[in-house]
TrEMBL record:
Region Disordered: start-end pairs: 50-103
Pfam families on file: TSP3_bac
Superkingdom in the source lineage: Archaea
Name assigned to this protein: Matrixin
Biased composition (Polar residues): 61-73
Chief location of this protein within or outside the cell: secreted
PANTHER family on file: EXPORTED CALCIUM-BINDING GLYCOPROTEIN, EXPORTED CALCIUM-BINDING GLYCOPROTEIN-RELATED
Transmembrane segments: 21-43
Taxonomic placement: Archaea, Methanobacteriati, Methanobacteriota, Stenosarchaea group, Halobacteria
Organism: Haloarcula amylolytica JCM 13557
InterPro entries: Ca-binding_acidic-repeat (IPR053180), MetalloPept_cat_dom_sf (IPR024079), TSP3_bac (IPR059100), TSP_type-3_rpt (IPR028974)
Length: 328
């Protein structure tokens, strides 16, 4: 069964209530839309209309219904301009207001694909599978989520931080020995095999991480983790901090923090000089990426928020994934 933990749900609810004053300004437009029978859920929750008391408005006529069906959607994100302005607070001229790679319409209407998404706050989704009987422990998950939540990046809603959603899926997957970071002949022996055969969220734009017993990087099984663009494989340890730190390191590679960049996967800088989990002198000692204030001066959190490597969303059509989203 899929599970997801994040801080995004409560923020999306808060965003809704904080925009009540804006809703009043656009009341005429919103009432017309609701009465026309159009349901636009916030992260999968349909707004409720009480027709049993109060009011007194007539049933929308055919002309009103036609006008609603032709509502302008300037940025093609699946949300009408009027709803973006009056309800969600998103930018009707920008299909992805928070710049996290997911169209606003998908974040609002695709709870099945993107649980607890917030169109005004950076979201990152990761599917985690395992060849072992268990997945990431709660302490490890909490450490990772809190690290991203405390990231020094700004969001359109005025908050800071990133919501990383760790969606744990399959366990006890069969591995054909060591899991390699490069494609190899045969089944079940490289990370690409597992993503191709077991990922349930690849079309939704999820990263893929595999927990396993033995990992090889560039053919060398001395390593305990390996990260490639969009994917990673890693071993687990008894220490939650060590496991969480290794996850952050390999997931950093999956997001595009590459070994050819100064200091990454090296020991030539002290932790003070290069304050990042991507530094071998920081690995297993910390979880965070650099904020750019150290000697190396690379703002890795800004890169993660704005320029990271992102998996394609194959299911998107008019801002949403029709088979997995609430439709108009």
């Amino acid at each position: 069964m899929l599970t997801d933990i994040s801080a995004g749900a409560r923020r999306l609810a808060n965003n809704w209530f904080c925009r009540l004053s804006t809703v009043r300004v656009g009341a005429v437009v919103l009432v017309t839309l609701l009465l026309a029978g159009v349901v636009f859920p916030v992260a999968g929750t349909s707004p409720q209309v009480n027709t049993a008391s109060g009011g007194g408005a007539d049933t929308p006529d055919v002309q009103q219904a036609q006008a609603d069906s032709n509502a302008t959607d300037t940025d093609g994100d699946g949300l009408s301009d009027s709803l973006e302005r009056s309800v969600y607070g998103t930018d009707p001229t920008d299909a992805d207001t928070d710049g996290d790679g997911y169209p606003d319409g998908m974040e609002v209407r695709c709870e099945q694909a993107l649980p607890d998404a917030d169109p005004l706050r950076t979201d990152i989704y990761v599917e985690v599978d395992s060849t072992q009987s268990t997945t990431l422990s709660d302490p490890v998950r909490t450490s990772i989520v809190e690290t991203f939540e405390n990231a020094p990046v700004s969001n359109p809603d005025g908050s800071t931080g990133i919501d990383i959603h760790l969606v744990t899926d399959d366990t006890k997957l069969s591995a054909n020995g060591t899991v390699h970071s490069k494609s190899r002949a045969g089944a079940g022996n490289d990370i690409y095999d597992f993503r191709a055969n077991h990922s349930e969220h690849r079309a939704d734009g999820y990263y893929y991480v595999l927990l396993t017993d033995d990992v090889a990087y560039n053919g060398d099984d001395y390593f305990v983790g390996a990260g490639r663009p969009e994917i990673a494989a890693m071993e687990r340890f008894d220490s939650p901090k060590v496991t969480a730190s290794l996850f952050m390191h390999e997931f950093g590679h999956a997001m595009g923090l590459d070994a050819h960049q100064d200091g990454i996967d090296e020991e030539r800088y002290s932790q003070t000089e290069y304050d990042s989990v991507m530094n071998y002198n920081g690995l297993y000692r910390q979880l965070s990426y650099s904020n750019g204030t150290d000697s190396v001066g690379r703002n890795e959190w800004q890169f993660v928020a704005e320029n990271r490597t992102q998996p394609d969303i194959d299911c998107v059509e008019n801002g949403t994934c029709p088979s997995r989203c609430t439709q108009n």
